[in-house]
Amino acid sequence: xxxxxxxxxxxxxxxxxxxxxxxxxxxxxxxxxxxxxxxxxxxxxxxxxxxxxxxxxxxxxxxxxxxxxxxxxxxxxxxxxxxxxxxxxxxxxxxxxxxxxxxxxxxxxxxxxxxxxxxxxxxxxxxxxxxxxxxxxxxxxxxxxxxxxxxxxxxxxxxxxxxxxxxxxxxxxxxxxx
Length: 178
Hints:
Layout: H1 7-31, H2 33-42, E1 46-50, E2 53-57, H3 62-94, H4 101-134, H5 143-177
Antiparallel strand pairs: 1-2
Helix pairs in contact: 1-3, 2-3, 3-4, 4-5
């Protein structure tokens, strides 16, 4: 069966084109995070979200700003990596290379990036809890938001990765038998 002429392939190509355009817009918005981090680091003071908690940053508390903004920088770099891998995957799909080894490697990179981002988010939440607890501010931890939802999302992504790998193997076998 020729995958290039299948009707689903044309829909996937069109949808991946639109998703690629949306991801380019998201990439632009993510790049706007760099000036925001610089502004917060040098000029701003106020509350920053750290998980479910909000941490107050004073203008002259440089060590606390450095710790918090470091986690923000690492999270921003991770989000840009996820965006890049997902855009590369959409490019593969636009070329109708749905079950290729490159597509699987881009999905693996995306899943690894999402797992890394979840760990960064957990680190931010832990830092927020520690900082607020040390200042005597009541903290909040929601197991549903902090653990269950991210792990469910990762489970769904691993299932989709597994399905794509099976599809790739079946596609390679079908090419070999023709």
